[in-house]
Design a protein that fits this description.
It is built from 12 helices and 20 strands. A 6-stranded antiparallel beta sheet has the order 2-1-4-5-6-7, covered by helices on one side. The protein has 389 residues and is of the alpha+beta class. It folds into 2 domains: 163 residues, 3-Layer(aba) Sandwich (Rossmann fold); 121 residues, no CATH class.
Length: 389
């Protein structure tokens, strides 16, 4: 974790129940959000996805998907939405990015956007972007000063996405935010993409819907034998009768996958595997990918999985957190059982109906006195750490 730029802080103001959230995640490469339904776990992931979309030129698209800005602003308590993130820059002060959006009728305005970095010996931070209410200014590296754009600027997308190439550090922030990826639980219905034959092209991730699971596994086997062997070892640990995966071609340029069980002479096809087996295979493949984004979010990974598989999955997540900052949201007591307090963020609702977020090892939760007699999931079920309905 020390040789790459990591996000230190996330601040969210005015997004659904997240009226005023300030969460420090530095030195927390693996964090799990727990809490009852409706406390804001998915909203936290969605807010980060919105911030990511702003760095990819997809801000208007995701806001439209959410039903418009006015529909996601904290009801009756906020009149704008503000997102903030900073990344660690080795040898320098953190690089800070802030974005504020204000509803205008059915649309919105980017009321504030600032990308800045404090400097030793200077009272004011250095600003790469300094925009307010349509007055767009960005630091132009050739002239070394803040300029207004002389090119067509889309007012519904951020300057972070639109400005020309910046210095290395702000480019890194743009890359990190733009590559943030959110995964939901895998669709394994009768016509799910993961069950269909897939194109035999190099794939570096299994796909958000499992649409590249087969070519990913095939490519991993052919290009990284150690990585593929490690993945198969996880499967053998989870399923003692598992022998191997095979990748028979089914048509020109198309592959499928089979699963060999030592108790049966013929292998199982993808559509014959159980929901839990398919979802576990997809998650294991995702976490073994050498091309994981710097920041990865997974919502409800426990769906369809037996508790014994969860302990294996969590250990794999801890290993993956050496390569990606990993945020997981769960409702599962069984998942919580295998965690440590420092890996948990308890989400709850305050007296005003807004979300709160507290690290599991925070002194005010005082979990140590309970851990001598109870497991973490038992403490959660008893209501001693909050996050219950």
């Amino acid at each position: 974790m020390t040789d790459r730029n990591n996000i230190n802080n996330i601040k969210i103001s005015g997004f659904r129940r997240l009226k005023d959230i300030d969460l420090r995640i530095a030195s927390r490469p693996f964090m799990v959000l727990i809490g009852a339904n409706g406390v804001g776990k998915t909203s936290f992931l969605d807010a980060i996805s919105l911030l990511s979309a702003s760095a990819r030129g997809e801000l208007n698209t995701i806001i439209t998907t959410f039903g418009g800005l006015a529909s996601v602003i904290t009801r009756e308590k906020s009149d704008s939405l503000t997102l903030f993130a900073d990344i660690d820059v080795p040898g320098h002060k953190p690089l800070c990015y802030e974005l504020s959006l204000t509803p205008i009728g059915p649309g919105y305005s980017i009321s504030r956007e600032e990308l800045s970095q404090a400097r030793d010996g200077f009272a004011q931070p250095f600003k790469h972007i300094d925009s307010r209410h349509g007055d767009i200014r960005y630091y132009e590296t050739a002239s070394r000063r803040l300029l207004r754009p002389n090119w067509v600027h889309n007012p519904l997308e951020t300057s972070l996405y639109q400005v020309p190439k910046m210095y290395q550090q702000p480019e890194e922030l743009r890359r990190i935010l733009g590559s943030v990826t959110q995964y939901h639980f895998l669709d394994v219905g009768p016509h799910a993409k993961v069950k269909l034959p897939q194109k035999m092209t190099p794939a570096y991730l299994p796909g958000a819907y499992g649409e590249d699971l087969v070519p990913f596994l095939y490519y991993l086997r052919e290009s990284d034998s150690d990585g593929y062997e490690a993945l198969e070892d996880v499967l053998k640990s989870a399923f003692p009768n598992f022998e191997r995966l095979s990748f028979p071609p089914v048509a020109a340029g198309m592959l499928t996958m089979t699963w060999k069980d030592r108790n049966f002479s013929k292998p199982f096809a993808m559509h014959e595997l159980s929901e839990g087996t398919l979802r576990f295979l997809w998650l294991v493949s995702l976490l073994h990918s050498p091309d994981l984004a710097t920041f990865t979010m997974i919502d409800e990974p426990e769906v369809s999985l037996h508790p014994e598989l969860l302990s294996i999955l969590i250990e794999l997540m801890r290993e993956s957190a050496e390569r990606t900052q990993l945020i997981v949201a769960t409702h599962s007591d069984s998942f919580v059982r295998f965690l440590e307090p420092k890996e948990i963020v308890v989400m709850d609702i305050d007296e005003d109906g807004c979300a709160t977020m507290t690290w599991g090892d925070d002194d005010k939760l005082d979990l140590e006195k309970w851990l001598d007699e109870y497991s973490l999931d038992e403490i959660w079920r008893m209501g001693q750490m909050g996050g219950r309905s």
